[in-house]
Amino acid sequence: MRNVLFVVFRYSGSMSRVLIFDVDGTLTLSGQKADPLFVEFLMSFWAAENCYLVTGSNMAKLQGQLPAKLLNLAKGVFTCSGNEFVSGERTHFVMNHSFPDELIQYCKQLIDLSPFCWRTGNHIDHRSGMLNVSVAGRNADRLDRQRYVDFDKVAHEREYLTESIMRVFPDYEATLGGQISIDIAPKGWNKGRVYSEIRQRHPNAEMIFFGDRMDAGGNDLPLAEKLMSDGQTAHHVNGFNETWKILRDDLGFGSQFRAVG
Ligand SMILES: [Mg+2]
Question: What's the 63 CA to ligand 1 centre distance in angstroms?
Fold first, then answer.
């Protein structure tokens, strides 16, 4: 009987579920620390499920947004849009790319030409395999960020920047990430590559992805498309409260917690 139970357990384990989360705008407000009550909710199932994080941020920024317990208990953490992969103490890979000076100079020109006048410095952030470019600058505080968000809503500047960069440098792709920046990477170096890494580790699992940028040009779209073409689920959420509601109402996690809003 014990053997039978063991076999059943193993079988259900191999058919298990994988939960994949973007971070900015999906588990946290953009660029901010996660809501403590939401973290408590996530912790109620985090270790028992196969949870992966896939963010455009680097590890240092991610550590400022999510507590160590959430990062350590994730099955895997992909940072820099999937160019770095860490699980627990182990770094599985770091992909680097040397971006041409012409591309960096072109980004600087675009930043200089922007009519947005609240500049905070640190406009081009070199991360593994990608560049993060922000007209407002990475030093933007909450007010600076909001100024740029309001500006971009009207001007659609980031869409213009991504289109312009891809037109001039067709070997590169530029996507909207977060709220105030764009990501640039060699073509194909995007979150979509995470799909095969996770699939290899969980060959038969159901995969469910949560992301806030699955619209055209969004940095979650490549992964959402790969998952959906494999018959898997991608939830396009509008903020962490929606992620919370889906996890609670559709997947039945942590019914003792109440989603806000
Ligand atoms: Mg996001």
Answer: 16
84 and 42 both lie in a single domain? yes
CA distance 95 to 85: 9
Q: What is the CATH number of the domain that holds 55?
A: 3.40.50.1000
Residues near ligand 1 ion, CB 5 Å cutoff: 22, 24-25, 212-213
**Kind and range of the H or E run holding 181:** strand 181-186
Instruction: Calculate how far, in angstroms, residue 8's C-alpha sits from the geometric centre of ligand 1.
Output: 37
Domain that holds residue 113: 101-186
Q: Measured in angstroms, how far is the CA atom of residue 184 from the centroid of ligand 1?
A: 15
Within-domain flag for 9: no
Yes or no: say if 184 and 172 are a contact pair by the CB < 8 Å rule. yes
What is the domain-level CATH number for residue 148? 3.30.1240.20
pLDDT in tens, 112-147: 999 999 999 899 999 989 999 999 998 899 899 999
Record the pTM.
Answer: 0.84
**What is the tens place of the pLDDT at every residue in 168-191?**
999 999 998 778 999 999 999 999
Q: What's the 218 CA to ligand 1 centre distance in angstroms?
A: 9
What's the gap in Å between 192 CA and the centre of ligand 1?
14
Q: Which residues contact 99 (CB under 8 A, 6 or more apart)?
A: 126, 131, 184
55 CA → ligand 1 middle, Å: 7
In this structure, the answer to whether residues 69 and 173 fall within a common structural domain is no
What does the mean pLDDT of the chain come to? 90
